[in-house]
């Protein structure tokens, strides 16, 4: 059972993601954010569960849908918004934009916009960890689209072979852009894709943050103890359009039934109900958290607005190490 | 032939529609090919018209899907494999370079590979480092492939139809910022030849060889230059492999000066090849050194001021020409080309 | 049960491969064959079983270890030897060499020297077949090394998704160059690698030609009837060095036990015993087949020796269709 | 520093040994890295000396293994990832171009990628189309990578040590036909700088810029030319990215003539880049057009007469120089360079 303190932390992380993403969507029409945004809305339970279940020295590698991980790990909100604004005070100094969240301080090593591309890199990070004793667990976070790529299987095979301390975390939101899983695979038990290669897998409810948290904790402990990799599939549903701030619930690719079910079971509501019921959190406390979150986001947006854009002379900085204007 | 003005995107769509109508062996495949976004509109109506056997979505497996297209082509089909970003082609290089480009040759001519690969260059609105690349030079480097970069709606239709009709693998690199431009396009199916460059604008003072979206920037620069007494000739190779050497060399013979502008980086880029060509076969026509413009040597950044510094532009082209001619850059700056592109795809 | 006629055909195909490969190895030290040779010796049962179980209109795609398939399908021996000699009358007109056997007349569409590279291409061939009614079955023949490559999984996934008429034939000879399977995979049940993707697999004795033949026949019939792809793993053992004419039985990578077992059970001996015991083939008949095979090989070598090398002016022929000097 | 003559292969081996001795974070990985063939001998003794954690075989998964090397590098290790044929790198382009080359930049400088990729060019004995490629130009095209092609044993050691010490991704392209050549190499560890070209032979009549095995062919040609009164200067860039522009330009300033010889195809090749460089910044030194030699525009064939026609050679280099100088090609033909390579690997 997840401790009460942890449950509230998880809820607060999720809340932070939700409100931040809502703010992003709200700002977006002003064109201040000129970057393709892939929101983590309705997938906060996975981001929060994974981020908090891992230790402070563990490392995560994510995708272009990376705001959630960044926030849940405790990445500073200011540099996030500043990066969306492409300012020099952004987490990538205005060079990466929305798709390339990074905050090595909190162990988010980088998010990549090429599907599955970070999976082998995370595997290499796990190799480095193992070479140094294996105490650091690595999480590769990716979508259900990533399991289409060969490099996913190659990585799982290598991780199994070398018994690497890595968790392969699949956020199965049923879609890759507008392609449902069923148009890309005959079979849909993604968690089984590593089985024959020696990577045990399991499928979990991705909308229940305590389930996510506990499953990651267990798998991480096992990996840290030398138990090797795990493939953890979290089932959720993408509520927003693939990219952009809006909803596209009328679009033909949508599975009406799954959508209706998802709309009825918001992971943030599920978490809120848990903290209220299990931890006895009061309405006043909830309001305070909302207010605090809002204050942080306001401050982050102000930070972004106040930031200067990078100067043209900075263009060639960091192409190579040490080269800067 | 009757012709009317349509967009680049509509021209691609028309080419696909006509090719699929005429030849049941033509089919379209690619990530998202059959969804309601219809490959930025370029696949509009194909699903309704030709059904899910002839236009289909694929798993996100660029390498295998390229192999699948090659295999189908070998066996007599005519696949058109679409990538909404050219950056994703890096996952398919093994199949394209080691297999498609070499199949016919290494088996002594046994079978051809009538494959068409369409890939779109992204730009702006935060595409960033991984959604903005123009890998044409890599395809030009490897014998066995043909490479074209359509610039006008007419090119887009005529070259796509030619690519589909061609027995060998052809890589068609489109530019997202060209999708909405409008131009005259014949209604009937027609093919444009490979290896033919177009003089987009005549001039006597300097030759600008530019491709794809860089033609738009170059035309804008040329207009401005003209207002200051400099007549630039703009030559668009369109077909990069095979390359129409003659048209380029003839233009340089006339102007004696060459600026090459490519959508990608300069190092070993298409611009290097064109410069090297002229430095060999056109040397005697040259009055001065050949200048190249391309992306600055960095990954593509997101912030606008960096992006402006990163990409070649009408402004930079005009400045460069003034410098080549040893003329003072006039006070009135070249207006920047404004592209309306907004939003991620 | 394999018919007696078929059994003798299988044996004769195997014999032809063995004797041809022995001749290749014998000629090799003369440097007349300047091409990296990957012999099919001791893997003839798979080549023969697969080749004969498929119909005349079926298509095969192979690897650089492709002499066996070429011969078993009935490819003309002259152009094979001529290709090894890099002559203009070779099956690739001297442009491909040993690693690129092809004989489209007998359905061997091409052999590739990049590991796993022909697997997706064969899958595309199966897609083409399906588009035209699915009566043609495709076989992708590859080694145990190919299952390391991501494209193998991508191809299996697509074949399952589209229910393509393709057989994925894995010749598991325990080695990729000098790397045993166990240094490349934690698990070694290769036939299971497609299971979770919806490609049923089975493992067979790859040294018993009747087992190979029957299993391919069954799988091909199923594929032809719309039953979709199968992954067929044939267990054998590579007796020769990876590349070249010799043996390297003392090399450290060798599994002594497996080697000893393999040396005791030569697939050609197994097949010979079958035709003798089951079909009542006499010693005289066996000798006649040997003699006939030798005659054919002699003629093929003569064909190769007599062939002219390609002329330098032919260099650019066939880079593109229709372009020739 | 004491130095002695050792082979190119031994020099690589010595560099690896010394790097691994000095820095426990250095490790070697690659297909067959730990087998008894020891990567053509270049990994000799490493397994015995450093154990299976620091030199290991990998599955045949070029793409993931490249990612693994990148990830390990990001986390502070110093991987050396070896490919016995450069052709296999086409499977790893996504990781190399989209990830390794861009990581530091697109994350605003957060982490460097101290990755070394070693890849070997194959040639002859029927390597054929898929085991003979030289993809250096593709790596030169993409900013964020460094690319070197060691020619001498000294380069092989000094540049590999420099590559391993470098914080950024470096692609080291070796040539199989150079493995047995012998040259002076210091015993102690030392690093050669990136971006420094070497004048392999001085001359006043023509500059031949050549890399890797093409240096051997060029030296042979230069010797022959010298016997006929033509003094060629042979410049070897060694480091292709960054490129030592100055040394090349200075040589052309002296000779006024340039022939560029590269191991790969000319179209958008390293030879195109060098020609384009000189056509821009060295134009005023040039007395005539720049000529390039490279592989003929076909996949690599197997038959010897075709192979001879396919590759640039001392003979073709000498002929080309005579033609450039408008001199009759002398009766006595340049002897062909004989390489002893025999057998597949
Ligand atoms: C290699 C590659 N191919 C195609 C794309 C285009 N693309 C961007 S996101 C995406 C879908 C990925 O879906 P999934 O992995 O499920 O992640 P989600 O967006 O659902 O979080 C695709 C195909 C890409 N970025 N990279
Ligand atoms: C993509 C690629 N990587 C590496 C190689 C080098 N190589 C040639 S054969 C081979 C082993 C393949 O083993 P397997 O598939 O089991 O076939 P076998 O030789 O046993 O028939 C390797 C690694 C290659 N040809 N292609
Ligand atoms: Mg998804
Ligand atoms: Mg094997």
Mean pLDDT of chain A: 97
Quaternary organization: heterotetramer
Outline of chain B, from the CA principal axes?
A: globular
The portion of residues forming beta strands of chain A comes to 5-15%
**How do the strands of the widest beta sheet of chain A line up side by side?**
2-1-3-4-8-7
**Rg over CA atoms of chain B:** 20 Å
Question: So, the CATH homologous superfamily of the largest domain in chain B?
Answer: Thiamin diphosphate (ThDP)-binding fold, Pyr/PP domains
The SSE string of chain A, one letter per element, is HHEHHEHEHEEEEHEHHH
Helix/strand class of chain B:
alpha/beta
Question: How would you describe what is shown here?
Answer:
- The complex is a heterotetramer, with two copies of chain A (325 residues) and two copies of chain B (345 residues).
- By secondary structure, chain A is an alpha/beta fold.
- Chain A has a single domain (4-303), classed as 3-Layer(aba) Sandwich (Rossmann fold).
- Helix content of chain A is 42%, strand content 12%.
- Chain A has ten helices and eight strands.
- Chain A has helices at 4-27, 44-53, 67-72, 77-84, 118-131, 150-161, 209-224, 256-264, 267-279, 283-306; strands at residues 59-63, 108-112, 138-143, 166-172, 175-176, 179-180, 201-205, 230-235.
- In chain A, the strands form two sheets. A six-stranded parallel β-sheet of chain A has the order 2-1-3-4-8-7, sandwiched between helices. Chain A has a two-stranded antiparallel ribbon with strand order 5-6.
- In chain A, α6 (150-161) links the parallel β3 (138-143) and β4.
- In chain A, α1 crosses α10 (283-306).
- Chain A is globular, with a radius of gyration of 19 Å.
- Chain A starts with a helix and ends in a 19-residue tail after the last helix.
- Chain B is an alpha/beta fold and 345 residues long.
- Chain B has two domains: 3-186, Rossmann fold; 198-324, Rossmann fold.
- Helices cover 35% and strands 20% of the residues of chain B.
- Chain B has helices at residues 8-22, 46-50, 62-74, 93-100, 103-106, 136-141, 153-165, 213-227, 245-255, 270-281, 304-310, 314-324; strands at 3-7, 26-30, 55-56, 78-83, 116-121, 146-148, 170-175, 182-186, 198-201, 206-210, 232-236, 239-241, 258-265, 291-295.
- In chain B, the strands form three sheets. A seven-stranded mixed β-sheet of chain B has the order 3-2-4-5-7-6-12, with helices on both faces. A five-stranded mixed β-sheet of chain B has the order 9-11-10-13-14, sandwiched between helices.
- In chain B, α8 (213-227) packs across α12 (314-324) and α9 packs across α10.
- The radius of gyration of chain B is 20 Å and the shape is globular.
- The mean pLDDT of chain B is 96.
- Chains in contact: A-B, A-C, A-D, B-C, B-D, C-D.
- At the B-D interface, α4, α6 and α10 of B face α4, α6 and α10 of D.
- Bound molecules: thiamine diphosphate (2 copies) and magnesium ion (2 copies).
- One thiamine diphosphate sits between chains A (38, 65, 113-115, 142-146, 173, 175-177, 238, 242) and B (31, 60, 62, 88, 91).
